[in-house]
Amino acid sequence: MNAPKISTKPPSGMRDFLPADIARRQHVIDVVRRIYGSYGFVPLETPAIENLSTLLGKYGEEGDQLLYRLLHRRDALHRGLEAGAKLVAGLSEDELESVGEDPSREARADVRLYESQLSDQGLRYDLTVPLARVAAQYDLPKYFKRYQIQPVWRADRPGKGRFREFYQCDVDVTGTSSLVAEAEVCGAVAEVLHALGFTDFKIRINHRQLLRAMMHHAGIDIAHEAAALVAIDKLDKVGHGGVLEELATRGISTEAANKLMMLVLTADGEQLFGFDLNQIAEGPKTPIKRVRKQITDELGLKALAELEELFDLLAATPAGPHIQLSLDLARGLGYYTGSIFEIAVPDLAGSLGGGGRYDNLVGMFGKKQVPAVGFSLGLERILVVMEERGMFPNLSIGPDVLLCWMEGTPRVEALRVAHSLRRQGVKVEVFPEEAKLGKQLQYADTPGVKAPVAAIVGGEELKAGQVTLKHLASGTQERVALEGAGEAVRALLRQ
Question: Cα–Cα distance between 277 and 290 in angstroms, integer?
């Protein structure tokens, strides 16, 4: 009987990164680190695994469903499975169906109890909630400016630029309600994008309190606010009609839904999804003036005043030329309390990144409220767009030199020559097997190696304390002293 074939593909939504992929990723990460550091942000790392008590209830209902949960091990898992079997045995067929379709409060409680007996840990969903936990756990500076570049995991449906494991590049400020913090994180993100070569991006900006005022104006009950936010957040994915359908399924009347969408889409008739259709001569604050005529809610008017001040501050940062009031922007995560941001480019359906103010998140961990704001760049989507646009510079991924050794040359001598070149700052790969020189030179030009220079060592070179350097593109070669060979290699690399 043949053994079952084992797939060598990674799981759906996960990827392997080969050397060329790593070079591109590292190029972007190096730019992010350099610019975030120049703004005074310091690095932070947190565990991949968090307690479910840390993660649950922070992302909204849909976010909680996308969490990767880790099962208990051994005896604890068996006990949880036994408890689940007893729970199922005690339910009728009608009750079992109701748990999957429209569970009662009692059924939901039973399911949550069962889930807690199976798992109490999960993979982090983002980097913001772990930061809030850290801020509650440690005695940090009053104004803690941190950046964090690590992977997160979401059980989402994979698509273009959308993966189940992906890196976020976060920059946050905790401890202040000042709009200077918003200006700093937006400015840092804009400068990163400039440094990577982006010029056509928009930083779409809205405010959670303004959205609530718009829902109030549309006649949407406060009990349906969270559901309405989730629906609006899908506008760029499902379109106007899709949002109206979802609002209806969530119990919002057709009249209220249409009124809300009219506000979202036509408050500024000169834009669609935040992109200018015509040049607005008066500048980015013009839509704020138009919206103010339709908002009477006190919190909504306060939000508009904050946005107006923020736009003034952003004018002094690299973000200034890119800002755009976008009333269709909702950001589905449940923890945002104030201004919210998202980065859009014309050739990507989703966003390159997003963020906002979350003043109540740290307080959810049992200590005093700590105001905070942050912005997250999605590394994977940046890489997708840069690759499609051909924005990467020439990135070296292989050795500078392939060290070739002639037949009869002791292997130990080849290793000594390689070590000497490395001490001189040269990246060296040693051909591992005894072979004819032509075969070694052919290997130097294979994909994944592509060494520009071959260093050839034979008996004559060893006796003279020299090495022969061959520039493979031009075919020229010269014999140089081993002690000065590093500089000679660098000269050849510049050709």
Answer: 17
